[in-house]
Design goal:
single chain; 182 residues; mainly alpha; 2 domains
Length: 182
């Protein structure tokens, strides 16, 4: 029944409802509310765009880092996968080179020798890169070239040490109170 009273009231006062228009103050408040909503949407949109840009930049940086620096364990694992005896030989020659460098530390280094050793290091790195993409039958040949490069580096270091020890015999023997590492 109440509905009938409400409906009756609306029908009887229809003309007064149609004539009434809201004042300027009401329209101003509506306009301000709409502006606030739009500014929130705009701020949220800008923040989400900035966040997406940061995520894209981080992803690109990670991909570039993986591409440039790669996984060094992968190189050793591939050498062990091809022939374990070569991996052992490589470890042996690395140890020999390290020992020779320690012995050379007592002497003045020659720039020409340093350049030769740096060039050998470059060649060895190129061989490692080739090894990663080499076809199946070519891998052992590249590994043998790599081992020969290690042998050449050890031979160069031994020759340099021999000549330095001939010209400077006082550096030949360590002092009695000094320890030598094995």
């Amino acid at each position: 029944m109440q509905r009938d009273h409400l409906e009756q009231f609306i029908l009887s006062n229809r003309e007064s409802f149609d004539e009434a228009t809201p004042g300027l103050q009401v329209w101003g408040e509506i306009n301000q509310a709409l502006d606030r909503r739009q500014s929130r949407r705009l701020a949220l949109w800008q923040v989400s765009r900035a966040a997406a840009a940061v995520v894209i930049l981080l992803a690109c940086g990670a991909l570039i880092g993986v591409y440039l620096f790669g996984n060094p364990e992968h190189q050793v694992a591939s050498l062990e996968r091809i022939a374990p005896e070569y991996a052992e030989a490589e470890q042996y020659y690395k140890q020999q080179i390290h020992q020779k460098y320690q012995q050379l530390a007592a002497y003045q280094r020659d720039d020409i020798v340093e350049k030769d050793l740096a060039r050998l290091d470059e060649v060895m790195e190129e061989l490692r890169q080739e090894l990663l993409v080499a076809p199946k039958g070519k891998e052992e040949e590249i590994v043998e070239d790599l081992i020969q490069s290690y042998q050449a580096k050890v031979a160069i270091l031994e020759r340099v040490l021999g000549r330095l020890q001939e010209t400077n015999p006082e550096f030949n023997k360590p002092a009695e109170d000094e320890e030598t590492s094995i």
